[in-house]
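Technical note accompanying the year-one report. For the benefit of new consortium partners, we illustrate the data format agreed upon in the data management plan: each record pairs a sequence with a structure-token string. No post-processing was applied to the example shown here.
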Amino acid sequence: MIPTVLLVALFAQSAPAQQRLADASATYASVAPSVFLVERRDNAGKRLGIGSAFLISGNRLVTNAHVVSGGRPFLKVGPIAIELTIARLDTKNDLAILESRTPVEARPLLFGPAEPGIGTPILALGNPQGLERTVTEGLISGVRTLAGRRLLQISASISPGSSGGPVVTSDGLVVGVVVGFLENGQNLNFAIPSELVQQLLSSSPVGTEFDIAFTSASRFSEEESAPYTDLASMNARRQRVTASIRLAGALASTGDQFWSITRLAVAEGMTDEAIRYAEAAIANRYRDADHARRMLIVQYLIQAIFADSFPPATVRRLVGLGDTLIIHKPSHPAGYRARAEGLLRSGRVQEALPSARKAVSLIGADTALRGTYWSLYHRIGALQNRPALDDSIFAAMDNANATDTDEWSSHARHLEERTEWNRAADAWAEAFALSPTSPAYACEAGENYWIADKVGDALAALRTCVEQYSMEVRFDTATISIAHQLLAAILNSRGVYPQAEMHARQSLILNGRNYRAALELSRALLSQKRPTEAVGAAELAIRESDGADSEAHFALGDAYFDLQDWSRSETAFRKADQLDPKGTAAAYNVALCLARQGYFKDAAQWMEVVLKRDPTRSDRARIGGMIRMWRSNP
């Protein structure tokens, strides 16, 4: 049974609560008819997104700029969609004033105090997920400045689709416009203060539909791209930018407008659109203009094509544009560059070389473009299969101070293809000197020095590689694993076995499938008189090489030999010999293992194989004596 005192208390509390609910219901009834669903559509009428808006006069509504940016706004009234125009836009504060050609049948909402006190009860209305005129209750819980914008923090919950809806006090006055929420926050929702709406209403109109669309497209383009690991955000930004640029392009009608949207499309890598807009700029403004201006647009069209990959039709167009520019401006390098790139992409490499050479000769000291022109010349020269030409072009490029890290690394690749390992290593070292925060170049230098048998230089470069990578947050584990493996090999060859073991183990931690590291670990352990451990490392090397590496089997034979397990040692050396039938080391050791097991005649046969494969051995006489001795044994 509930105590009488508690019952009295419950009834005492219920009256204010009931009154508050009645007030909220009355406020909702007066405000809700003035709140509408707004759709953003593309030129084909496809819906791109939804939001909320509220009426402030006979044909004017308020919403967020992001609700209507990148598409055409429509007001949904039941099954009817009324097209709206954007009368004013404030992208900084994310506000837009929309206008309808016909009056909207609803009571306009009035604005309340500029900044209501914290703790003021409020209602937020909107269309979350398309659920029209949804209301949530809360308080003004704070006034914040985020990213340079003054916002009201509200405790009323909001969801996608609520953006642009009104935040009203208990008497139905608008104190804010719903703008968004922090996804990682607990009920952290925000609204734009109503005073900013009133400031926007007193500002000048934003201009034509193209101006509005172009402003919106520019705003989206200026948004910082999300990290490459956040694919969802990257794709969302890409969709916003693409849709807004296409809308502005559809609204463009003058040469200047087409030129403006071309620049934006080039910056976003929208090659097909950029080409189309640039050609429209030529057709709409420069058809009868002087050649200088027409050629300026041709140059920009060439730049648009360079912004992305080249389909065959675009390549043919590029060559033609280059020829057009050469005819009208023979001293301008852009035409020769376009022709060279087009011919290169068409597979006409030899024809491309003279144009690339001419482009470089005309570029002069234009530091902004010089590297790009030289890079094209260098690429084309390398494809001529004439090493001397490739080297001379790169030397000229270096003398012109047009080389950078990318060019040094590119030339290093060319030298690797020609198996000029020492020069390739020097080129990688130069790339690292230009970009000391990119340890991958030091790793490449070390590997090439090792192949070139410049052990000292390899040791220094590889140590720099692992030391620099140790300070990186992200790194390529495969690259560092190889660096540690090569360090282990060098230190094994110098007799520094404990350090070789350490590097080999570090290599395996980074890449447990690096059988070469397991092989170096086996060698380091065996040299430290730890044959049992060496067996395990050698067996790992065999497994990870799928049994195809003769050196791994040889290392296993060595380990079993030290353990005096002659049978297993013989088996391992036989497999090593099978995989390397021209070598003599494994055959020699097979003979020794057989002799220790008492199979002297078989041992003699294997030693004869050794002499047959290498008849000029310095120890030929000693081996001959062993064969005669084993033959004489019963």
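Partners are asked to follow this layout when depositing records. Residues 271 and 305 are 6 Å apart (CA to CA).
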